[in-house]
Amino acid sequence: MLTEEEIKAIDHEASRVPHKKAALIDALKIVQQQRGWVSDESVSDLAEYLEISPAEVDSVATFYNLIFRRPVGSNVILLCDSISCYVMHYEEIYASLKDKLGVAFGQTTEDGLFTLLPNACLGCCDRAPAMMINHDLYTDLKPEQLDTILMKYK
Amino acid sequence: MERPLTKNIHPGRPPLNLKDYEMTGGYSALRKIMAGMSPKDVQQAVQDSNLKGRGGAGFNTGMKWSFVPMDEKGGPTKYLIANADEMEPGTFKDRLLLEGNPHQLIEGMIIAAYAIQANISYIFLRWAYKAAAKCLEESIHEAYHAGYLGENILGTGYRLEMYLHTGAGRYMCGEETALLNALEGKRAMPRAKPPFPQVSGLFGKPTIVNNVETLCCIPHIINNGAEWFKSLSYSEDGGTKLYGVSGKVNKPGAWELPMGVTMRELIEEYAGGMKNGYQLKGVLPGGASTDFLTVQHLDLKMDFKSVAAAGSRLGTGTMIVMDDATCPVGFVHNLQHFFAQESCGWCTPCREGLPWVEKLLLSLEKGTGTEEDIDLLQQHTQWLGPGNTFCALAPGAMEPLQSALKYFRDDFDRHVKEKKCPYHHNHH
Amino acid sequence: MPTIIIDNIPYQVKAGSNLLEACLGVGIDLPYFCWHPALGSVGACRQCAVKVFKDEQDNSGRLVMSCMEAIKDGIRISVQDKGAKAFREQVIEWLMTNHPHDCPVCDEGGSCHLQDMTVMTGHDYRRFKYKKRTYVNQYLGPLVHHEMNRCIQCYRCVRYYRDYAGGHDLNVFGAHNHVYFGREKDGILESPFSGNLAEVCPTGVFTDKTLKQHYTRKWDLTSAPSVCQQCSVGCNILAGERYGQLRNVLNRYHSEVNGYFICDRGRFGYEHVNNVNRIRQPIIRNLTVEAVDETTLLTHLQQVINNRNLIGIGSPRASVESNYSLMHLVGKENYYSGISEDATFIERKIVDILENGGIHTPSLKEIENADAVIVLGEDIWNTAPVMALSVRQSVMKTAAREAMTQISTPAWNDAAVRERVQEDRGYFANLAITESPVDEWSTHTYHSVPDNIARLAFAIASKLRPELPLPEGMPEADLQLAERVAGALENAKHVVVISGSGPGSETLVRAAYNIARAVQEKGKTAGLAFVLPESNSMGAAMMKAPSFDKALQRIRKENNTTVIILENDLYRYNSTTDVDQFLDTCKSIIAIDSLNTLTTGKAHVLVPAATFAESDGTSINYEGRAQHYYQVFMPANPCIKESWKWLWKMKSLMAGSANGQEHHPDEILKQIESSYPQFTGISASAAPADFRIYGQLLPREPHRYSGRTAMLANIGVSEPKPLDDGDSPFTFTMEGYQGLPPAPLIPFYWRPGWNSVQALNKYQQEIGGPLRGGDPGIRLFDRNDKVASWWFNDTPEAFAGRTGKWLLLPQYHVFGSAEMSRWSAALDFLTPQPCISISQQDAAQLGVSEGHMLTIETDKERFSLPVAVRSDLVQGVVLAPAGFQSIPSLAWGTWIKIMA
Ligand SMILES: Cc1cc2nc3c(=O)[nH]c(=O)nc-3n(C[C@H](O)[C@H](O)[C@H](O)COP(=O)(O)O)c2cc1C
Ligand code: SF4
Ligand code: FES
C-alpha cells in the first residue's frame, strides 16, 4: 500500500506531465526515499496507482542504476570509480572501505548499516577521489579520513 | 578578460538568489526581448553569435532552434529542456553554473523557450547533484514569484512553466533523445533520428534540448550582442568556455576562459602544472569520450575546430590528464568498464561489443592478453564507429581506445610481452 | 515506381518502403533480426547493414542500416560490399558471444532464423574466449516455453507482445548486456495472442510448449495448408503431422485475412485431433460387439437409410462439402441446419444483409485500414480474437497516419511513429454488454443490454441521417454519446461496423446495418462485418436450411424417422429438453462425428469422421470468403473418413450400389454452385484433384524429411507404399514439384537459405502484400452490387428490469466457448471456471457474494454455478457462460429466474 504522503508526492509529480504514467521514475524514487528500496509489492502498488502493468514498472525500475530492487543498508555509500577518481587512486579508498566494513561492492554490512556501491562519476573530478553517503558528498578523500566519516553514520 | 558566465560565482559562497542576480543585471535580457524582440529575432541573434552547443557535439545553437516549426504545424505544445545530466566522466563544469548562479540558467531557458515559443520547460538534473537540486527548486520558485515564469510573463501574455526533474542514474540520460524517454517515465533508450527532437521530441512534440552552459550564454548574448560574444573568443567559435582539468595536477579545477586558450595555458598556468614527480603522458581534452592528445599538442587551441583538426574533440572542454605513472591500459579499461555498464542494451555492437572490449583490456591488464587481443581491440574501434551503432555512446567510447592504441601502443605490447601490467608497482 | 541500383543492377521497387524491404522484395538475401514485416523497423540489431554511395564516383560509401533507410529514386547501394559483409558477419559474432550453441537440443533447430542468418553471413569461428552470461528461465504457462539463454536481444518479442498485440505482462528488464525478456515474475502469459511469440522470436527463446510434448523437427513434419476451425474469422494455418499425430499449427500468411498472426485458440486448439475421445471405429449400438468394420457398417446403413422418412441435420463446423453432401443425400426438403430457430433467424438476417444489403463486408486487412471502427454488442475479443487484433491495428494505424504526415516519417519507422503518436489512438467505439480488454483502446465505451445498445445504434444512425427513426425516450447521456459517435464517423473516411450473432439479438444486426448504410450514403467507404459462432457458420447459414426447431416440429408429427446428424452436438445449440425429445422420437439416429459428444452418445450408429487435419474441405468465413483446407495426413484407420466421403457412400447405398462413384471436393463444389446460386464461384477455391505442375504433384513433406525408410522399422522392414489421397494435388511424400507452389497450395515455408518461417518473404509479391499469384480464397458476396431499398425502422424499447426475473445474456471466453478447445489439454487448463455474473446491486438484493452458488432456472433448464459480482453490469441482468462444456445451451435475451 502506498502511503498518503507518497501518493501526494506522486500526484505532485504527475501534475507536471501530460499523463500519470510519465511520472513513473519520480514515483519509484519517492517510494525508494520512503522505504530505502523498491520491493515487489511496491512495484505492484505503483503499477496499480499509475494504471500500468507491474511488468512495465519493473522494466523501468531495473533499467536505472539508482533504483534499488533489493534491500539496502540504512546508509548507502556510493564510491566513484570513474576515470578521474581512478587516476587519483580511488582503489585505495575502496580497499580501505572493504577492510573497515568487511563488504565488497554490491554488499551490505551484517549490521545493516552500510551498503557499498560503485558509482559512475559524481561530477567532482577536480576533487577526486570522491564518494557520497546518502546525501553527503565527500571529496579529496584520504583513507585516513574514513573512520571519522563512517562514525557519523553509526 | 571577461568572464560573463562566472564573474558572479564565488565557489564556497552560497548561490546568487534572485535579488543578487537582479543586482548584477539579471533578467535584463529577458526584459529586453519581452520589450520588443520577436522569437525569430532571438533565434537570429543567437545564430549570429556563433554559439556552439556546450554539451559536446558543438552544433550552432541558433541554427538548431531554427528547425523548430514556428507555424501551426508545430502545434500548441512545445518544450524546452536544459540538459543538466552531466555524467560524462571527468566533467564537472555545469555543476559550477548550477550551484553558483541558478537564475542565469533560468533566464537563459526562458529566453530560449520564448525563441521557439515553448510553454513548458524542464531541467533534467542528474541525481547526484543534490545541492544544485535544492538551489534550483528555490530559484524556480523565486522566478515564478517575480513573474519571470508562469501564466503571464512580465505582463506580455507569454506563458512558460518550468519544472525540475532529477534522474535515476544512467549515463544514457544525457543523450538528448534518451533524455526524452527518461522524462516520459520510460527506459532511457535513444531514439532514431530523423525525426529530430526539434520536430518530434518530448511527448511527440517539438522540443529543444540544450546544455546548461549553452543556455547560460544566452542572456549575455541578448544583452551585449552577437559581435560582443564573438569578440570574447580567441577563435571563430563565439564566446567563453568553461574549461576544467582533473588528474595529477597541482590545482585541479574549472575556469571560464576565452574560447581557444591553449592546452598548455590550461594545464601549466591555471591547473598549476603537473604534481611533483609526475609527467604528463596524455590528455582527454573534453571528457571520457574524446580522443587522447599528448605532449605534442600542448600548444593546441582548445576550440571545436582546432581540437578536431588534431584528431580529437573539444567535447565538454573538461580535460582529464593522464600522468606517466598511470597505466594507459588500465586507464582505458576503466573507461570501457564505464561505457559497457552504461550501454542501454538496445543495439548489438554497443551491448555486446563494449563488454568484449572491456574483457580484452582486463585480460591485458592481468597479463593474460595476446597479440590477437590487441588486434581485436583495434577492430572494435572500427566496428563501433559512428553510424555503425544506434547512438553516439559506443563511438564515443572508442575514441579514447583508438587513440590510446595509436599513441601508447608500446604499453599495450609490453603487457603482452611481460605478461603483466608494467605499471602496477607504481601504485601506492 | 522508383529505381534503385543494388550492386550495379537497377531494380524497380515499391515507393515508400525501406532498403531492406526492397532488397528482400527483389529476392536478395539480406540478414535481419529486429525488423519484422508487421512490426516495422527500429534499427536495433544492426544486422541489415549495407553500403550507400553518394554517386558513381563514390566507391567507399557509407554504412547504413537498410531497414532504417528510405527508398530514394536512383539511390546506389551495395549488399555485396566487403565492408558491409564483414560488418554483418561481425554482428552475428557479437550475438553469438553469449548464445549457448545448443541447436541440437533446441526446439527451433532446423527452423531457426538465427541459424539461417549465421550461415548467411558466413560467421563460423569463435574468437570470444570468456564466460557467457546465463539466465534463469520462467514458467510462462502451458502454451509458451521460455529459454532465455538463447536470446539475441532483438526486442521483437516485446515489440510484438506490447506494441502490436497490446499485452502488458511481457517486457524487457535490466540494461546493457544484461537485458532479460520475460514477465516480471513467473506466471501465465495473459495475452491470447502469446503463441505468436514462437514465430516472432527468431531463435529458440519462445517456443510452442505443446509441440514440445510430442516434439518433431520441422523437416520431419508432413504438412498441408489448412484453415483454422476455431471461429468464424477463418485464419489460414499450416498444420504438421508425424506418426499419425498432429504436432503443431503455424500461421499461414494471408494478406487479407490473418496476415502474420493467429490467436492461441487457433494455434493450440489442434489437439482434439489426437484426443482419446476420438471416434475411431464405426459403432453400431446394441450389438454384442459394437465396434464394427466398414463392410458391416455399410450393410447396416443400407437397411437404415432406405427409410423414406430420412432427414439430415447439418453443422456449422462441418465443411461446405459435407453439409452439401448431406443435403444432397436427404433432399433439400429434409435438410435442417441443426441450430435453434432464434439463432437461425439472426443468421438468416445477416446473410440477407450481406447478400442484398449493398454493403461491403470488410476483410481483416480492411478493418486494419479503417479510420473508425464501431463494435455493436459482439464480444470480439472472445468470439473472434484475431478480428480484435485487427481493430487494435486500426486504432494504432489511424493515429500513426496523422503523425506521419505531420513529421513526414514513413509508417515503417516504427519507434519514431510511436514516439510521436504517444497515447493518441484512432477512433474506436466499443458498445458491448460487458467490459473487454478492447475497451482499453477505445475512444468510447458503453456497456448495456443488447436492446439498449441497439437503441444507441439506431440513434447514431439517426444522427447521421435524420430521416431514420430516433428511439423514443433516450436518456440525455445516451443522446450525447450518439451525437459524439456520429460526429466521429462523419469525420472518418473508412468506417467499419462490426456486430454479430453472439449477443443473440436480431435488432442489433439491423441497427448495425442502419449505421453502415447511413455512413455509406454520406459517400464514405463503409464496411459491415458480422461475427458468427463457428468456422463454417456462414457457409451453413448460406444454405438457408430450416432450423432444428423445424425438424423437431416435423418429427413430432411423424414417427419412424431416421436422422443423420452431421458433426453436430445438438445440445450446444438447442435446449436439452428439445434435443432429448428429438432424439427420443427418432427411430434411428446416425451420427457422423470425429469426437464423442452428448449427441453421439445417443446415436444408434456412429460413423467416424475425419477432423479438419484429416480432411479436404471448404469453410466460409465471416466475410463470405470460401477457403479450402487440405488433408494433412491420412488417419491410420481407413474407417476415419471425411464426412462427405461417408455421405457419398451412403448415397451409393441408396442407389443400390455398394461401391458408387468417388467424388472429389472440387466436383462437389461445382455441384453446389449449380444447386445454390449464392455459392457461385466457390469451386475456384479448391484446386482440382488432377492439378499438376509440370506433371508433378506437390509434396507435403519437405526435401529433408528423414527416416522414411526406417520410421516403421519396428513393424516391418520394407518401406510402405506412399499413401495417396487422390482428392488433391498433394502427395504424402517428399517427391514432387520443388518450385514455388501456387499461393493456395503452400504446405510449409522453406526456400534455399531460409529454413524458418521467415522464408515467407520468398512467397510474397511484395513484403506485406499478397502472396505470389494472389491470396487464396473466393469472396462470395462480392458479386452483389445490388443496393437494398430498405432501411430498418422499428427500434426496440428501452431495457426495464422486472421483479423476480433477470435478462439472460452470454459471457464468452476465448478458451472456453469454442467446442473443440477443451480437447486440448493446454487450453482446457486455461479455461476459467464457469460462473454466473450479476451486478453489485443484484448481489446485494439477493444477499449473495462472490463465490456463492446460484441456481438459474429457465423454462427449459436449471443449473447451479458460483456467482461473480461485477461492476460493469446493469441491474436485472445475468450473464451465463456461453458454449462451455457441461453448461446447457441457453436462449439469450430471455427472462429467467435466479435462486440463491
Ligand atoms: C552518451 C551521451 C551522453 C551525453 N551526455 C550529455 C550530458 O550529460 N550533458 C549534455 O549537455 N549533453 C550530453 N550529451 C549530448 C546531448 O546529446 C546533446 O547533444 C546536448 O545536450 C545538446 O545540447 P547543446 O546543443 O547545447 O550542446 C550526451 C551525448 C551522448 C551521446
Ligand atoms: S527473446 Fe527472442 S524475440 Fe525476444 S529479444 Fe530475445 S531473441 Fe529477440
Ligand atoms: S533489421 Fe535493420 S537494424 Fe535490425
UniProtKB/TrEMBL annotation, chain A:
SUPFAM superfamilies in alphabetical order: Thioredoxin-like
Matching PROSITE patterns: COMPLEX1_24K (PS01099)
Keyword tags: 2Fe-2S, Iron, Iron-sulfur, Metal-binding
InterPro entries, A to Z: NuoE-like, NuoE_dom, NuoE_N, Thioredoxin-like_sf
Cofactor details (free text): Binds 1 [2Fe-2S] cluster.
Pfam families, per database record: 2Fe-2S_thioredx (PF01257)
GO molecular function (one): NADH dehydrogenase activity
Keyword Oxidoreductase belongs to the record: no
Domain of life the protein comes from: Bacteria
Sequence similarity: Belongs to the complex I 24 kDa subunit family.
Protein name: NADH dehydrogenase
Species this protein is from: Flavihumibacter solisilvae
UniProtKB/TrEMBL annotation, chain B:
The keyword Repressor is annotated on this UniProt entry: no
Keywords: 4Fe-4S, Flavoprotein, FMN, Iron, Iron-sulfur, Metal-binding, NAD, Oxidoreductase, Quinone, Translocase
GO molecular function: 4 iron, 4 sulfur cluster binding; FMN binding; metal ion binding; NAD binding; NADH dehydrogenase (ubiquinone) activity; oxidoreductase activity; quinone binding
Enzyme class: translocase
Cross-referenced InterPro entries: NADH-UbQ_OxRdtase_51kDa_CS (IPR001949), NADH-UbQ_OxRdtase_suF (IPR011537), Nuo51_FMN-bd (IPR011538), Nuo51_FMN-bd_sf (IPR037225), Nuop51_4Fe4S-bd (IPR019575), Nuop51_4Fe4S-bd_sf (IPR037207), SLBB_dom (IPR054765)
Cofactor (UniProt): FMN; [4Fe-4S] cluster
Swiss-Prot/TrEMBL catalytic activity: a quinone + NADH + 5 H(+)(in) = a quinol + NAD(+) + 4 H(+)(out)
Domain NADH-ubiquinone oxidoreductase 51kDa subunit iron-sulphur binding: residue ranges: 329-374
Subunit structure: Composed of 13 different subunits. Subunits NuoCD, E, F, and G constitute the peripheral sector of the complex.
Function: NDH-1 shuttles electrons from NADH, via FMN and iron-sulfur (Fe-S) centers, to quinones in the respiratory chain.
Protein name: NADH-quinone oxidoreductase subunit F
Taxonomic lineage: Bacteria, Pseudomonadati, Bacteroidota, Chitinophagia, Chitinophagales
TrEMBL record, chain C:
SMART domains: Molybdop_Fe4S4 (SM00926), NADH-G_4Fe-4S_3 (SM00929)
Catalytic activity: a quinone + NADH + 5 H(+)(in) = a quinol + NAD(+) + 4 H(+)(out)
Database matches in CDD domains: fer2 (cd00207), MopB_CT_NDH-1_NuoG2-N7 (cd02788)
Segments forming domain 4Fe-4S His(Cys)3-ligated-type: 83-122
Gene Ontology biological process terms from the UniProt entry: ATP synthesis coupled electron transport
The UniProt record lists the keyword Electron transport: no
Cofactor: [4Fe-4S] cluster; [2Fe-2S] cluster
Alphabetical UniProt keywords: 2Fe-2S, 4Fe-4S, Iron, Iron-sulfur, Metal-binding, NAD, Oxidoreductase, Quinone, Translocase, Ubiquinone
GO cellular component, one term: membrane
One Pfam family matching this protein: Fer2_4
EC numbers: 7.1.1.-
UniProt-listed InterPro entries: 2Fe-2S_ferredoxin-like_sf, 2Fe-2S_ferredoxin-type, Asp_de-COase-like_dom_sf, MoPterin_dinucl-bd_dom, Mopterin_OxRdtase, Mopterin_OxRdtase_4Fe-4S_dom, NADH_UbQ_OxRdtase_75kDa_su_CS, NADH_UbQ_OxRdtase_ferredoxin
Protein family: Belongs to the complex I 75 kDa subunit family.
Complex formation: Composed of 13 different subunits. Subunits NuoCD, E, F, and G constitute the peripheral sector of the complex.
Stated role: NDH-1 shuttles electrons from NADH, via FMN and iron-sulfur (Fe-S) centers, to quinones in the respiratory chain. The immediate electron acceptor for the enzyme in this species is believed to be ubiquinone. Couples the redox reaction to proton translocation (for every two electrons transferred, four hydrogen ions are translocated across the cytoplasmic membrane), and thus conserves the redox energy in a proton gradient. NDH-1 shuttles electrons from NADH, via FMN and iron-sulfur (Fe-S) centers, to quinones in the respiratory chain. Couples the redox reaction to proton translocation (for every two electrons transferred, four hydrogen ions are translocated across the cytoplasmic membrane), and thus conserves the redox energy in a proton gradient.
Identification of the protein by name: NADH-quinone oxidoreductase
Originating species: Flavihumibacter solisilvae
